[in-house]
């Protein structure tokens, strides 16, 4: 990637997180990946201590989001990110087990950029993540709004 | 209110009516008898009066004969003689009449009979006196008459007539009393009867009012019960719906959450597999280094299987086998979870009733399975089918599942023959899908409709979901699904669906 994009991975299942990270690395993406296993910790990081998101002003972020979190709804996090004036341009990739069409539509309505259903078949899973990694390596991520 | 009391009441009403009727009949009969009796009594009274009258007439005639005879004796005028003769002419017939009238009473008959001789004697005396006058012996006539006037026959006539009168007076009193009594009796009977009828009427009115009150009470209770029942049904329906929703949500969440660890298991199993490759490659290398063979294979590519020998090879195979079992189990579990997810998703889908050309729909399904049918050398015959109003997607799933099953479980080596028939009955359309396949053992007829259960030889892929799904769909459409089959003799699946399915149908039935 041209500019140092930080990947924020919000995923409560550490196994999933590990698999995702491994496969992203395998596709040749070497950006920093910051994992969060709870929504609260992720929100704290994203919006900073003042809760405005100002801390990330000028940073290029990419969010990988699982919808089924124990302490917060992924939808909620998505909404907050897309409502924040600094973070709203940040691409959000929803990567979750939910394949309910209502849920998918809702995420896109809220401004999610990519919605991926985790396939149980590991080959497909690994493939999907690697392709996602390839995708990461070509997309342009804008820095958080100034 | 129990039936016994009702029967008793009905019986009471019948008895009451019968009693009223019999009282009326009795009163009428008694009245007729009493009126008849009264008429007889008054007839007797009249008869007595008649007898007395006759007696008076007789005595009057005798007196008239006597006085005219005396007049003749005194004046010798023939006027008196004619009168005397006319009087005497009626006397004897009068006695006869009196005798006839008193024939019912032996005492009076005797009296009348006894009356006759003195009257005749008296008449003879008159005749003799008149004969004296005719012979101009006036003095002899008077003397004779005087003598006779104080004589026996006059006294006898007086006595007898008095006796008769007394007797008739007694009879008159007696008969009058009887007539009075009869009349009193008649009026008493009438009064009593009327009273009884009025009393019965009163009881009847009371009973009618009581029974109508009871009916009103029963109606009120029935209405209350109906309302209660409806409320209860509504409550239960709401409860059931809630429970059903709960189960759906539960199934959805469970299957969802089960998937998450499965991704890990599968993922790390794959990682393990890769590790296995690395490990055995290293083992192979190490083995080669130990045996100091020329490292000709060193430049082999990463993907090549390392060449192993003896126990190392055995170890590698065991490893592969274990991984294989893990992976196939994961795949199976994933299919089951997906099936549950699909079922819950189906359960939540809203049905939309539309008019469906059933034949067209089935022909569409047959076209999609044409390839399988050709492989199985099976023909699918569609007979005339009734059109219905129902949910199109659900109906498609029902029929395609059943037709696919029929194709899937044909007897090997026997050309398949699948038949789709339809008819209507009492607002329901009945569809039958008959095949000549391997059939289902009757003991498995219930089992095949259960989720994840299958029957017979397990030589075909499948999760045991199709029929459970079909049955759930048919039920949601307000119908039933049943099977008739014997092992080796084909099967017939019968679907009964309402011809006009509406959302309301389902709501009343769910």
Structural class of chain B: alpha+beta
Q: Which strand-content bin applies to the residues of chain A?
A: 15-25%
- What's the overall geometry of chain B? rod-shaped
Strand content of chain B: 5-15%
Rg of chain B (C-alpha, Å): 65 Å
The helix content of chain B is over 70%
- Average pLDDT over all residues of chain A: 84
Q: What is the number of E strands of chain B?
A: 7
Number of helices of chain A: 5
Strands ordered across the widest β-sheet of chain B: 2-4-5-7-6
Q: Could you tell me the radius of gyration of chain A in angstroms?
A: 14 Å
Provide the descriptors you would attach to this structure in a database record.
heterodimer; A: 146 residues; alpha/beta; five-stranded parallel beta sheet; 5 helices; B: 510 residues; alpha+beta; five-stranded mixed beta sheet; two-stranded antiparallel ribbon; 11 helices; 7 strands; disordered C terminus
Q: If you had to describe this structure to a student in words, what would you say it looks like?
A:
The complex is a heterodimer of chains A (146) and B (510). Chain A is of the alpha/beta class. Chain A is 40% helix and 16% strand. Chain A contains five helices and five strands, in the order E-H-E-H-E-H-E-H-E-H. A five-stranded parallel β-sheet of chain A has the order 2-1-3-4-5. In chain A, helix 1 (14-26) links the parallel strand 1 (6-10) and strand 2 (33-36). The longest helix of chain A has 17 residues, at 122-138. Chain A is globular. The two termini of chain A are 21 Å apart. In chain A, 40% of the residues are buried. Chain B has 510 residues and is α+β, with helices and mostly antiparallel strands. Chain B is 72% helix and 8% strand. Chain B contains eleven helices and seven strands. Chain B has helices at 3-75, 78-101, 106-134, 138-149, 152-291, 310-348, 358-368, 370-375, 392-408, 466-476, 503-509, and strands at residues 353-356, 379-382, 388-391, 417-425, 428-434, 480-485, 491-498. In chain B, strands 2-4-5-7-6 form a five-stranded mixed β-sheet. A two-stranded antiparallel ribbon of chain B has the order 1-3. The longest helix of chain B has 140 residues, at 152-291. Chain B is rod-shaped, with a radius of gyration of 65 Å. Chains A and B meet through helix 1 and helix 5 of A and helix 5 and helix 6 of B.
């Amino acid at each position: 990637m041209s500019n140092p994009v930080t990947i924020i991975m919000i995923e409560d299942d550490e196994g999933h997180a590990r698999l995702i990270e491994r496969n992203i690395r395998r596709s040749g993406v070497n950006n920093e990946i910051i994992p969060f296993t709870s929504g609260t910790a992720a929100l704290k990081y994203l919006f900073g201590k003042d809760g405005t998101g100002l801390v990330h002003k000028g940073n290029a972020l990419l969010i990988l989001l699982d919808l089924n979190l124990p302490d917060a709804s992924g939808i909620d996090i998505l909404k907050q990110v897309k409502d924040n004036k600094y973070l709203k341009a940040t691409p959000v990739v929803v990567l979750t087990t939910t394949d309910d069409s209502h849920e998918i539509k809702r995420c896109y309505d809220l401004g999610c950029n990519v919605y991926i259903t985790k396939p149980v078949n590991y080959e497909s899973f690994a493939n999907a993540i690697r392709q996602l990694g390839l995708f990461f390596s070509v997309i342009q991520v804008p820095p958080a709004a100034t | 209110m129990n039936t016994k009391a009702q029967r008793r009441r009905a019986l009471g009403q019948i008895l009451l009516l019968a009693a009223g009727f019999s009282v009326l009949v009795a009163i009428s009969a008694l009245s007729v008898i009493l009126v008849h009796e009264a008429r007889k009594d008054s007839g007797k009274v009249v008869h007595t009066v008649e007898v007395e009258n006759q007696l008076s007439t007789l005595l009057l005639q005798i007196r008239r004969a006597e006085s005219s005879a005396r007049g003749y004796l005194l004046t010798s005028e023939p006027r008196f003689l004619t009168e005397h003769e006319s009087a005497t002419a009626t006397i004897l017939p009068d006695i006869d009449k009196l005798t006839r009238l008193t024939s019912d009473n032996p005492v009076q008959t005797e009296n009348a009979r006894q009356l006759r001789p003195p009257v005749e004697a008296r008449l003879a005396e008159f005749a003799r006196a008149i004969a004296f006058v005719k012979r101009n012996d006036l003095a002899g006539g008077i003397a004779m008459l005087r003598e006779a006037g104080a004589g026996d026959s006059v006294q006898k006539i007086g006595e007898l007539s008095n006796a008769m009168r007394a007797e008739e007076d007694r009879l008159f009193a007696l008969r009058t009393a009887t007539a009075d009594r009869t009349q009193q009796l008649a009026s008493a009977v009438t009064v009593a009867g009327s009273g009884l009828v009025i009393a019965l009427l009163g009881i009847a009115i009371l009973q009618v009012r009581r029974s109508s009150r009871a009916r009103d009470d029963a109606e009120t209770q029935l209405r209350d019960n109906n309302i209660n029942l409806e409320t209860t049904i509504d409550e239960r329906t709401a409860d059931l719906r809630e429970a059903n929703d709960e189960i759906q949500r539960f199934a959805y969440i469970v299957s969802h959450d089960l998937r998450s660890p499965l991704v890990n298991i599968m993922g790390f199993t794959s990682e393990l597999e890769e590790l296995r490759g690395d490990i055995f490659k290293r083992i192979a290398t190490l083995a080669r280094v130990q045996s100091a063979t020329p490292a000709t294979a060193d430049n082999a590519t990463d993907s090549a299987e390392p060449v192993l020998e003896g126990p190392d090879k055995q170890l590698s195979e065991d490893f592969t086998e274990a991984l294989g079992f893990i992976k196939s189990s994961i795949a199976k579990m994933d299919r089951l979870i997906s099936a549950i997810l699909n079922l819950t998703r189906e359960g939540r889908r809203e049905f939309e009733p539309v008019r469906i050309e059933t034949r067209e729909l089935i022909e569409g399904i047959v076209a999609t399975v044409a390839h399988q049918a050709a492989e199985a050398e099976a023909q699918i015959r569609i007979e005339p089918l009734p059109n219905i109003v129902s949910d199109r997607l659900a109906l498609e799933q029902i029929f395609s599942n059943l037709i696919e099953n029929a194709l899937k479980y044909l007897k090997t080596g026997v050309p398949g023959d699948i038949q789709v028939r339809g008819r209507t009955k009492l607002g329901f359309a009945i569809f039958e899908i008959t095949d000549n396949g391997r059939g289902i053992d009757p003991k498995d007829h219930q089992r095949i409709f259960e989720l994840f259960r299958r029957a017979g030889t397990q030589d075909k892929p499948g999760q045991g979901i199709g029929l459970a799904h079909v049955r759930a769909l048919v039920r949601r459409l307000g119908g039933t699904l049943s099977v008739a089959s014997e092992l080796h003799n084909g099967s017939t699946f019968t679907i009964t669906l309402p011809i006009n399915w509406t959302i309301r149908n389902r709501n009343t039935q769910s």
